[in-house]
Design a protein that fits this description.
Layout: E1 3-5, E2 12-14, E3 17-19, H1 34-49, E4 54-56, H2 65-76, E5 85-90, E6 92-93, E7 105-106, H3 110-124, E8 129-134, H4 143-155, E9 159-165, H5 169-178, E10 183-189, H6 196-199, H7 202-209, E11 212-216, H8 223-226, H9 237-254, H10 258-267, E12 274-277, H11 282-289, H12 298-309
Parallel strand pairs: 3-4, 3-12, 4-5, 5-8, 8-9, 9-10, 10-11, 11-12
Antiparallel strand pairs: 1-2, 6-7
Helix pairs in contact: 1-2, 2-3, 3-4, 9-10, 9-12
Bound molecules: NADP nicotinamide-adenine-dinucleotide phosphate.
């Protein structure tokens, strides 16, 4: 697979990343079943066999089960660890953790970051995480405290590099000014049904600061592929129908699936967006790779953008 350097670092990632959110369970760990775990193993193995070298996780995915399953894959395929980058996240704490009365919240305290990293390392069964990201901005986050945690993790050899997620540009700058380690990546939602990053300065900042944007849910969690019938009660019905027809027309033109076309649209942006695909179906993984063979023209890129926005460009 084609590769891309991450930020200004020497780390190199496959051009598409593999998102491990859904490998152990559809959402909560309690929903997992033994057959789902085997299905998840096959999905990760298939992504690795097909050339993915960036795997994205988080402590909260399936309540830690995604990391444990991934650790199990690494045990079953011992040669894998040295050929891949493991990215994981912390900073979101679910309700009831650790006390039953605790609310859902964000936590960038040094104590939580350090403890969460140790738990992730344990579940993954590795000594080092390649990219450690803060999942969602903590309103009470203190950049000095985060910096101290990051430095300690780096010095202890537990984390190689760091990144942010869902971070608005001004906050990213704030953290980068204060953190004594570079922040390589910003993982945000980007797809044809969610265009904020193009207009809110996120991608501008990625370009000017050489930060790698990672696109989460690049197929809108499957909605871009599903876009089937018409839901006339949906206030955005007309825009979505037009977008679906445009995607289909161009997918036929480029002779790829809807999924590959939507991914190719992200890959075309000069900021070097790394889409994190989340399918656990090996056939869909293969289909996604076709995006790399498509070079969407400037004209077609704008046709898709206009259909996504739902009105003519000014
Ligand atoms: N930082 C954050 O806040 C954040 C938030 C959300 C996600 N993420 C990251 O982004 C990754 C991807 O998210 P996502 O799973 O929502 O991504 P996605 O690729 O947009 O959606 C994947 C979903 O689409 C479905 N799908 C249906 N038809 C498909 C087709 N032809 N090709 C591909 N997928 C198809 C998949 O089902 P099948 O498995 O049946 O194919 C799966 O349920 C996550 O794993 C995680 O690493 C990060």
């Amino acid at each position: 697979m084609r590769t891309i350097p991450l930020g200004r670092s020497s780390l190199v990632s496959s051009r598409l990343g593999y998102g491990c959110w859904r490998i152990a369970a559809p959402w909560e760990g309690a929903e997992s079943r033994p057959e789902r775990l085997e299905h998840g193993y096959e999905a990760v193995k298939s992504a690795f066999d097909q050339g993915f070298t960036l795997f994205d996780l988080a402590d909260i995915y399936a309540d830690g089960m995604s990391e444990s399953l991934f650790g199990n894959v690494l045990k079953r395929i011992p040669s894998m660890r040295d050929q891949i980058l493991i990215a994981t996240k912390c900073g979101i704490r679910k309700a009831g953790n650790p006390h039953p009365q605790d609310p859902y919240r964000y936590d960038f305290s040094k104590e939580h970051i350090m403890a969460s990293c140790d738990h992730s390392l344990q579940r993954l069964g590795v000594e080092t995480i390649d990219i450690y990201q803060l999942h969602r901005p903590d309103y009470l986050g203190d950049p000095d405290e985060v910096s101290a945690a990051f430095e300690a993790l780096h010095q202890a050899g537990k984390v190689k590099t760091f990144g942010m997620s869902n971070c608005r540009p001004s906050l990213f700058s704030t953290y980068q000014k204060i953190c004594r380690v570079p922040l390589l990546t910003n993982q945000v939602e980007i797809h044809l049904l969610h265009l904020d990053a193009f207009n809110d300065g996120t991608l501008d900042q990625c370009q000017s600061e050489r930060i790698t944007p990672m696109a989460w849910s690049p197929l809108a969690g499957g909605r871009l592929v599903a876009m089937a019938g018409s839901d006339l009660n949906d206030p955005h019905h007309a825009r979505k129908a037009k977008l679906r027809d445009t995607v289909d027309k161009l997918a036929r033109h480029y002779e790829v699936s809807r999924a590959a076309l939507c991914l190719a649209w992200l890959l075309r942006h000069p900021s070097g967006i790394v889409p994190l695909i989340g399918t656990t179906n090996p056939v869909h993984i293969t289909e996604a790779l076709k995006a790399l063979d498509v070079e969407i023209t400037r004209e077609d890129w704008y046709v898709l953008m206009e259909a996504a926005v739902g009105k003519r460009m000014p």
